[in-house]
Description:
Mean pLDDT: 93
Largest sheet: 27 strands, mixed
Radius of gyration: 24 Å
Structural class: mainly beta
Distance between the termini: 38 Å
Number of helices: 4
Low-confidence stretches: 1-26
Oligomer: single chain
Amino acid sequence: MYRLKNIKKQLLTTSTILLSGIALNASATATYNPATNTVDLPVVEVLSSGSSAFFSAQLQLVGNELQLVSANPVAATTGQRNVFDSDTSAVHISSVSVGADSYYAKLKLVPGSDPLRFSIDQLVNNAFQGCPAFAQQGPTANSCILSGTITSNVTLTKNIEWLLEGPVYIGGDKSQSAILAINPGTKIIGQDKAYLWIRRGSKIMAEGTPDNPIVMTGAIGQDAGEWAGLVLAGNAPVNGCNAGVPVCEVPFEAVTTEIYGGNDAADNSGVLKYVQILFAGDAVRQDEELNGLTLNGVGSGTLIDYVQVHAGLDDGVEVFGGTVQMKHLVLTNIRDDSLDWTNGWQGRAQFILIKQALDSGDRGIEADNNEVDNGSSPRAQPILSNMTILGRTGSAVEGVLLRRGTGVNIWNSVVSGGFASCLTIDGPATFAHAGTPGSLSGSLTVQNSYVNCAANFADGEGATFTTSDWFLSQSENVAGDPLLGGYLPAAGSPLTLGGAAVSDAFFTPVDYIGAFKDADSDWTKEWTFPFN
């Protein structure tokens, strides 16, 4: 499947032979001029810091590398194209024709190069070439089966339909560490009760693109709970251990043989970018379902950006401690809670759309510090900004439930729709940790935000102040109509200029409330699975 090793051995003599056969056809996105040894990329989308720009570019073959010769702005476009992702320093060329064959090419930016130069990281035939040694032949054409534990670096490519059977583990627990790379456009199908688990010390490098997202789904692809889900386990701090334990490591509630947590706040479990996780949430044992995406003690070195979880039977994303940071989450049609945290999560998140199905869905956010010991340390203290949380009509639960001693700092967010209450604070430990309106501790805050539900506020057990007083005593909060058109701000919406920048380097500075600036700034387009 991979031609990379053979190509690199004879790159100087082979590159020209390979590239001279390149021709631009209906599906190819690059072409080669043998007279000038140049590669023309008619459209390259450059992704950087949540925005993109489009260029036509030309690369010159120089030795065993490709050097940037020119880059000129062109109009934005959709459909198949080349993509440079500044987060991963990679160029993804979805289709290059070599003779009669079409190849996916991945180029890596050479660090410090000026002018910019790129090495050839992958050249993979887009046609099925058989199953690799780490997989077994599947039951259908072009399919291969993944099962058991994988302890070597492997790559999943889009020319194969990958089937997960049973639990699939990447690496051992802090031993035999491995990297699972997943190329743009790759489809992974989880069978009944199957799940993919990245163990501590290993990484997933799932690098999708806007035009070729990575898809993880069930066998039928129609209903919640067709497979179990994706789990990342890391070495970042968590709570839940007895006082005095030097490094807290805990077993996972659904699969108790698996451990997570540690003392490395900057731990890196890899990359999830432009990824769909669909129809997950199957039970792995009695009454123990997995979430679409489970993050166990995952560290801040992990990159999670542009990830959709759709139609999960359990939670959409559940965070068990750690310091993981996320941007551009789309959590749609989730049957249980869309975003859930516990065990002391101290991460960050920005640009989150939560949209419930018309007929199902529990809370938008369910937030705990620790269920057993509400004061367990480190205490949950995430910072969240630019959330749009939309509840279904007739919901009997809260849009956002803050309980069991959690802390959180919420900025620039809107909760709206049919929730029984938009915001609820619950539990003596949560109230005590917050302080009082007018004299808040700073650990439980919300600013520059809107609420507009069937009832905006509710007070849980142990209340020492009202949730309403808490919300309205803080800066620029409004209980009123945010003027939404679906999930986007409508014309004249107060959300478009009501935000404030968060003083934290992780956050993109904004001046608006909610996940979107306006109706023309819908970052869910093209890469997501359709949602109502």
